[in-house]
Each structure stands twice: as structure tokens, then as C-alpha cells.
UniProtKB/TrEMBL annotation:
Name of the protein in question: AraC family transcriptional regulator
Top-level taxon: Bacteria
Protease listed as a keyword: no
GO cellular component: cytosol
Annotated SMART domains: HTH_ARAC
GO molecular function terms noted in the UniProt entry: DNA-binding transcription factor activity; transcription cis-regulatory region binding
Keyword entries, A-Z: DNA-binding, Transcription, Transcription regulation
PANTHER family assigned: HTH-TYPE TRANSCRIPTIONAL REGULATOR GADX, HTH-TYPE TRANSCRIPTIONAL REGULATOR VQSM
Upper lineage: Bacteria, Pseudomonadati, Myxococcota, Myxococcia, Myxococcales
Domain HTH araC/xylS-type span(s) in chain numbering: 236-334
InterPro entries: AraC-type_N (IPR032687), Homeodomain-like_sf (IPR009057), HTH_AraC (IPR018060), HTH_AraC-typ_CS (IPR018062)
Pfam families (alphabetical): Arabinose_bd, HTH_18
Cited PROSITE patterns: HTH_ARAC_FAMILY_1, HTH_ARAC_FAMILY_2
């Protein structure tokens, strides 16, 4: 399966925010393997593991364990461009949230947003299939807070959720979350991140509803969604083969190409056209696999090192420090009960 990707809009917002706080945003981007100069292109996407690192490194750089939450509350309407305006010009809150679920891939093709209804409640469920342990803390807090803030801004009503659920462990600063969401009904270590609202809130009209503009935006967003759909083919097969290879040690370009039925020169030509190298793909696969395995507290670093193709735990620690700026142990602690 191909490494999921995200639109440049959120990384750009993260970096602009930390820059405004006096942090060297260019250095922060480089540590995550992101070329900040390419983020001005709205059609460019970056690999999800690099986006995950931006969240973590940004929170550490500004010293704010609730960086994602606070970014959501200072978010300006329209910063997600067509996606944002499409949802805001819908007739009702329910229609806007359904559209957000349908077109989330424009911003993040590694996450899923669904809206389920019961007799009295409407639950938005945010799930990242590539992260069995759930999205990172910063991403989770940003997403749930952004959904609620959107609902409040778009309707002009002080909506209070029935409950907010997180896959993470309860943080020490849970009172900060309670204040932001307006409720103490917070649940942790859930199977997915959830925001549950009164069902009758879905019928609330949106203040910026505009039928004509909405229809025009919908046509544009549908077109962009088709263009943004990850291609099925050599990219997915490449990542699958590299992941198999890393468990054996250093991935071999020749062996991977043989399994793909491609020549090394042909694969490198395709990667170059996509702005990638075989080494970068290998690093992305290793990083994502290490991150997934670190979510399992029963696995030690030595065992994880072997499964991502390193000779010993020390080699993994050096690589993980280079990728993330922190040790595997510190990363595990920061994503569990931070």
C-alpha cells in the first residue's frame, strides 16, 4: 500500500504558526524531511509520516503539549480553501458535516471521517487505518476541536457535545481539553476519536449557506477529489515490496524491481518524476513501521529494530533520532501519556 499523503495546507499552517512564535520553521521542516519552499504549491502533497513529524516537532519546539488544540481554536475560516468553503456554504450543519466526511481525502488520504446517527445523537468518528493505535495526539486534538469549532462558527450556536473520545491516554492537562470542548465528558483510550453532538443540531441552518455558490464549489471539489485519489498501481506495490524487504535488512533496489517486474532505471525514472528517491521511500516505510510498532508497549526497541531492518537497537535509535529529533523511548512516552 502506498504511503498516505496530506495536502500542503496543514503543514504550511503549522510552520507559519511556529514561525510566528519565533521558532526556526525552516529547520523544523528539514527535520521532518519537508521542503518548505514546496508548500506554496496547493497541488503538492507530502508523505503522511513527514506530516506526523511536523505535529510532534512543532509541539515540542513551542513547548505546548496542546499545540494541535490551540491551533484549531485560532484557525481562520477559509484556510482549507475549497474544502472549507464547500462545507460552509451547505444548507445545514448536517449537510456540511456529510461533505467533510466525503471529501476529507482532499486534505488527508490516510484518514477517514464518518457520521453515524442514533435516535438522539450524531457521532463523528475520525479514524486513521494506517495508525492502529490512533492518530497522534496533536492531530487528534486539532481534528476534533476543528470539527466542533466549525460547527459553532458555521451555525452561530454555542454547541456542547455529549462526549468527546480520544484514542490516547488521559493527559495531565485534561482540564484544558474540558475547557476547549465545553464539557467534562471526555473519554480516553477509545477505539477511535469521536465527537458526539445532539442529533437535532444537524438541522441547524448555516450562516453562509449559498445554493448557487455551493453547487459551483461542489463541481470543483468533486473534480479535485478525483484527481487527488491515490493512484492504484506501481506506488502501492513499491511500498508493499519495500516493507517486506525492510524485515530482511537493507532493501535492495534490484530485488524490489524484480518483484515489481520493472527495471531499476525505469523505477528510478518514475520516482524522479514524482520528486522522490528509492532511499526516501525506504526511510518513509521504515519510519512509519517503527512508529506503528512503538504504539505497542509490549514490544521492546530491539525487537522493533529487527522488524524494521536494523542490526540492533542502537542503529534504530540513531536513525529514529535523525528522523524525529527524539529517541524511540521518548517518542513512545510522548504519544502515550503525555
Amino acid at each position: 500500500m502506498a504511503t498516505p499523503s496530506i495536502s500542503t495546507r496543514l503543514p504550511r499552517l503549522i510552520l507559519d504558526t511556529v514561525a510566528a512564535k519565533g521558532v526556526n520553521a525552516d529547520a523544523l521542516a528539514r527535520r521532518a524531511g519537508v521542503d518548505r519552499t514546496r508548500l506554496t504549491d496547493a497541488h503538492t502533497r507530502i508523505a503522511l509520516p513527514r506530516g506526523d513529524l511536523l505535529w510532534e516537532n512543532a509541539a515540542a519546539a513551542v513547548g505546548d503539549p496542546h499545540f494541535g488544540l490551540h491551533l484549531a481554536t485560532t484557525f481562520e475560516p477559509g484556510q482549507f480553501d475549497l474544502f472549507d468553503y464547500l462545507c460552509r456554504t451547505a444548507a445545514t450543519l448536517g449537510a456540511g458535516l456529510h461533505l467533510a466526511s466525503r471529501h476529507l481525502r482532499l486534505l488527508h488520504d490516510g484518514a477517514e471521517l464518518s457520521l453515524t446517527l442514533s435516535e438522539s445523537r450524531a457521532t463523528l468518528r475520525y479514524h486513521c487505518p494506517n495508525h492502529p493505535a490512533g492518530p497522534g495526539r496533536q492531530e487528534a486534538e486539532f481534528t476534533l476541536a476543528r470539527l466542533l469549532t466549525f460547527a459553532r462558527e458555521a451555525t452561530g450556536q454555542p454547541l456542547i457535545p455529549f462526549q468527546v473520545g480520544f484514542t490516547q491516554a488521559a493527559p495531565r492537562g485534561r482540564n484544558v481539553l474540558a475547557e476547549a470542548f465545553g464539557t467534562t465528558r471526555l473519554a480516553f483510550r477509545q477505539e477511535s476519536c469521536t465527537l458526539t453532538l445532539p442529533r437535532d443540531m444537524l438541522s441547524l441552518p448555516l450562516r453562509q449557506a449559498d445554493g448557487g455558490l455551493h453547487a459551483l464549489l461542489l463541481r470543483h471539489v468533486d473534480l479535485l477529489a478525483r484527481e487527488a485519489t491515490p493512484p492504484v498501481g506501481w506506488r502501492e506495490r513499491l511500498h508493499a515490496q519495500v516493507e517486506e524487504e525492510v524485515e530482511r535488512g537493507e532493501p535492495s533496489l534490484a530485488r524490489v524491481c524484480a518483484r515489481l517486474g520493472m527495471s531499476p532505471r525505469g523505477l528510478q525514472r518514475r520516482l524522479k518524476a514524482a520528486g522522490r528517491t528509492f532511499r526516501e521511500v525506504t526511510e518513509d516505510v521504515r519510519l512509519e513501521k517503527a512508529r506503528r510498532l512503538l504504539a505497542d508497549d509490549s514490544l521492546n526497541v530491539a525487537g522493533i529494530a529487527e522488524r524494521v531492518g536494523y542490526s540492533d537497537a542502537r542503529a534504530l535509535r540513531r536513525a529514529f533520532q535523525r528522523w524525529t529529533g527524539m529517541s524511540p523511548g521518548r517518542y513512545r512516552r510522548s504519544t502515550s501519556a503525555a
